[in-house]
Specification:
Elements lengths: L4 H16 L6 E2 L2 E2 L12 H16 L5 E2 L16 H11 L10 E19 L3 E3 L3 E22 L5 E21 L12
Parallel strand pairs: 3-7
Antiparallel strand pairs: 1-2, 4-6, 5-6, 6-7
C-alpha cells in the first residue's frame, strides 16, 4: 500500500505539533525558552517617565486621607501646605518643560522660589459616605506663586538663548481630606 504525499505531510505536521505542545520542548538547560519573546523590547524614555510620574502622583497627592475626628476646642485648620515637589509637579503638568528637543529647543527653570498662601480653609457638615461612614470633608485651598528665571536655548536655524529673569506662574492647589465623625472605635464592650 502506497502512502500519499498529502497523508505523509499531514502526519509530519501533527507529529511536530504534538512534540512542540507537550511542555518539554521549550525547556533548555538554562530554563524555559520564550523564543522570539525572550528579546527585550526598548521602551521610549518619555513613556516610562509618564508612567513613573502617574504612579508618583497617585501614591502621594491624588488620594484623600481619612483622619481622626475633630476634637472640641482643638485645632480645626489644615496644617499641611503643599510641598515644593507637589507645586513643581503641578506647574510641570500645567506648563511642561521636559520632553523638548535636545540641542534644538530646550527650556530650563532656574533660581526657583515658591510662595504659598492659604486662601480658604473650611469644613463641610457631617454626612455619610459609602464605604467610609459618617465623615466631614475638610477643604484647604492654596495659591502658590512660583518665581523663576526661564532660559530658552534654540539651536536651529540660528543658535541663540533667550533669558527671562522675572517669570512667575500661579498654581492653585486643593488639599482635601476627610475627618471621621462620631465614635471612631467600634470595638465591642463585652468582658472576656
Amino acid at each position: 500500500m502506497m502512502v500519499s504525499p498529502r497523508h505523509l505531510l499531514l502526519a509530519l505536521l501533527v507529529a511536530a505539533g504534538t512534540i512542540t505542545q507537550s511542555g518539554c520542548f521549550w525547556l533548555t538547560q538554562q530554563g524555559p525558552n520564550l523564543g522570539p519573546l525572550a528579546f527585550p523590547i526598548p521602551v521610549p524614555v518619555g513613556i516610562q517617565k509618564n508612567k513613573e510620574d502617574q504612579y508618583w502622583n497617585y501614591e502621594r497627592y491624588e488620594r484623600t486621607p481619612i483622619l481622626g475626628a475633630l476634637q472640641p476646642g482643638g485645632p480645626c485648620e489644615a496644617l499641611d501646605e503643599p510641598s515644593d515637589d507637589e507645586v513643581m509637579r503641578a506647574l510641570e503638568k500645567a506648563r511642561p518643560v521636559q520632553g523638548n528637543w535636545p540641542f534644538l529647543y530646550e527650556v530650563q527653570r532656574n533660581h526657583v522660589r515658591i510662595s504659598k498662601c492659604k486662601i480658604a480653609d473650611y469644613i463641610d457638615p457631617p454626612r455619610h459616605l459609602p464605604l467610609v461612614g459618617p465623615t466631614q470633608l475638610h477643604h484647604a485651598h492654596y495659591k502658590c506663586t512660583v518665581y523663576f528665571q526661564e532660559v530658552k536655548r534654540v539651536g536651529w536655524p540660528v543658535p541663540h538663548t533667550l533669558v527671562d529673569d522675572d517669570t512667575q506662574e500661579v498654581i492653585y492647589i486643593d488639599h482635601d481630606h476627610l475627618h471621621m465623625v462620631g465614635d471612631v472605635d467600634p470595638g465591642c464592650d463585652a468582658n472576656f
